[in-house]
Amino acid sequence: MGILNLTPDSFSDGGLYNKSKQAFRHIKDMISSGADIIDIGGESTRPGSKDVPHQIEWKRLEKIINKFKKKFPKVFLSIDTRKSDVMLKAIKHKSDLINDVSGFNYDSESIEKIKNYDVCKVLHHMQGTPENMQINPTYQNVLLDIYDFFEEKINTDFKKFKYKKFIIDPGIGFGKNLKHNLILMHNISLFHSLGFPLLIGTSRKKFINQISGRFDSKERIGGTLASVLYTLQQGVQIFRVHNVNEVKQAILIYKKIISIK
Questions:
Q1: 123, 129, 132, 135 alpha-carbon torsion, rounded to 10°
Q2: CA–CA dist 254, 248 (Å, integer)
Q3: Which of the four pLDDT bands, split at 50, 70 and 90, describes residue 176?
Q4: Which residue in 9, 86, 15 sits closest to 48, CA to CA?
Q5: 15 — phi, psi (to 5°)?
Q6: For 153-167, how does the pLDDT look when each residue is reduced to its tens digit (9 = 90+)?
Q7: What pLDDT is recorded for position 14?
Q8: What percent of the chain stands above pLDDT 70?
Q9: Contact (Cβ atoms closer than 8 angstroms) between residue 9 and residue 42
Q10: Which of 41, 146, 213, 250 measures 20 to 30 Å from 110, CA to CA?
């Protein structure tokens, strides 16, 4: 899953792809580098970020989403949004997946509005909101608490969805400290028992800096690859990343090495 942020303030690449020409060039590059899914967002959900009105968010997305399926009809289109109005407009423009980092908790109307559409949904965990999620996040047991969150949602709110096309994302960096993130990555295979594909987003995230210290780098490719390959070993199927080519290369090499007998 290649990331396209159409925002001025995303933590890693805010403002780089806001013009249509730059955005479509980046989409094309990610697809040629091996992306099967393009995840497009118009609102930053980095730690400390503020809410963006849905009108502004859609204005950032509209030109790209309107033309996406005409230019790339076979590529899976994902929309990273918390707002039901944006979800509906994206679905009407043939989006395949809704990626809501709030776990469909931010907008109380979102489930009701999209429940009958045949689209995939990412069930993402986040403690708190982007504005406050990194202010002392606490759990009794981070692994079991998040597992219970997904299990309860699947058996209650998510029963309303007509099409049970869910993807589980434990939300690395969304209301978690370093230890929480490491426990989740170390034990992520637990979530397979929920019965849905797993997605993980570790690309360029702060935990890499927290561990690597003076060996940190701008794009954090080394740390991203380490986390991708470790969780790949545990059966994770989808990786949300900025550096598509490097991750694709690493996965191909890893799979080739482990397949040799």
A1: -20
A2: 10
A3: very high
A4: 9
A5: 85, -10
A6: 999 999 999 999 999
A7: 47
A8: 96
A9: no
A10: 146
Q: H helices within the chain, ranges in order?
A: 20-32, 54-71, 84-92, 110-114, 142-155, 178-186, 206-212, 221-233, 244-259
How far is it, in rounded angstroms, from Cα 196 to Cα 166? Answer: 6
Amino acid making up residue 119: V
CATH class of 2-259: alpha beta
Query: Could you tell me the two tokens for 145?
Result: 């608490």
pLDDT score, position 17: 59
Give just the sign of the alpha carbon dihedral 90, 91, 97, 103. positive
pLDDT at 120 over 70: yes
The C-alpha atoms of residue 78 and residue 40 are separated, in whole angstroms, by 6
Residue 190 carries which DSSP code? G
Domain ranges of the chain: 2-259
Q: Are 125 and 174 in contact (CB under 8 A)?
A: yes
Say whether 204 is catalytic: no
Handedness of CA 225, 231, 235, 241 (dihedral sign): negative
Q: What are phi and psi of 217, to 5 degrees?
A: -145, 165
Catalytic-role residue among 83, 176, 204, 240? 240
What are residue 98's phi and psi, to 5 degrees? -110, 120
Q: What is the pLDDT of residue 21?
A: 86
Which of 82, 89, 153, 205 is flagged as catalytic?
Answer: 205
Q: Which residue has the tokens 């047991």?
A: 141
82 catalytically annotated? no
Residue indicated by tokens 């990610």 = 30
Mean pLDDT to the nearest integer, 217-225: 96
Query: How sure is the predictor about 10, in pLDDT bands with cuts at 50, 70 and 90?
Result: very low
